[in-house]
Amino acid sequence: MSTPALPTRPTPTDFPLPRPIALSLPAQAPTVLTGRLVPDDLWHLAKEAIPPTPKRPQGGGQRRADDREVLAAIVFVAGSGCSWRRLPPVFGASWQTVHRRFTEWTAAGLWDLLCAAAERRAVCARSDWTLTVCRRIRARAASSASSAYAVSAARSGDASPPDALWRVPAAAGRAAG
């Protein structure tokens, strides 16, 4: 009698892997919230004024968050008055990224450029919104600069802030006696 043949194990060559499909992804369209907070006319003004992206000397890393979504997050923070840490995650960037870009763009003078460009293009249908957004962000940048000075002065022990930041009338500063 002959012995029956044992079943053989399948090898990896028995089941070839499918070839990867080359996909060409379209440019990312803004989300509804981003489109409402940063309309196209404001985005075209900002895109021209945003400083160029710095190159990473070490290369690699995560993909950079979209500038339009970061700008929408900054508009949200400036308009709502919420803190950076309370920024909702719907914008696609962390609060740290949004705050870092806000600081970088403030140092580059982006908000003054945006306000000036928006005032030149005041004939647009949504120019009131654009001007309001620019002014609120500029006010937020000014308040964060003064609060940053207060924090650094408190840490260093400097008790004499410049008069431009805190101007207290002489009568209000005296204690009632």
Notes on the protein architecture:
There is one protein chain. The protein has 177 residues and is mainly α. Helix content is 50%, strand content 0%. The chain contains seven helices and no strands. The protein has helices at residues 32-37, 40-49, 67-80, 95-107, 110-120, 127-156, 170-173. Helix 3 (67-80) packs across helix 6 and helix 5 packs antiparallel against helix 6. The chain is elongated and about 95 Å long. The termini are far apart. Mean pLDDT is 74; it is low at 148-155 and 158-177.
Could you tell me the strand content as a percent range?
Answer: under 5%
Which structural class is indicated by helix and strand composition? mainly alpha
* Outline type: elongated
What count of helical segments does DSSP give? 7
SS elements, strand count:
0
Order of secondary-structure elements: HHHHHHH
The profile of the biggest β sheet is: none
Distance between the termini: 120 Å
Q: Determine the oligomeric state from the structure.
A: single chain
pLDDT average, as an integer? 74
Q: Topology, pairings included?
A:
Blueprint: H1 32-37, H2 40-49, H3 67-80, H4 95-107, H5 110-120, H6 127-156, H7 170-173
Helix pairs in contact: 2-5, 3-4, 3-6, 5-6
For this entry, give a set of tags.
0% strand, elongated, mainly alpha, 50% helix
Brief characterization of the structure:
This protein has 177 residues and is an all-alpha fold. The protein has helices at 32-37, 40-49, 67-80, 95-107, 110-120, 127-156, 170-173.
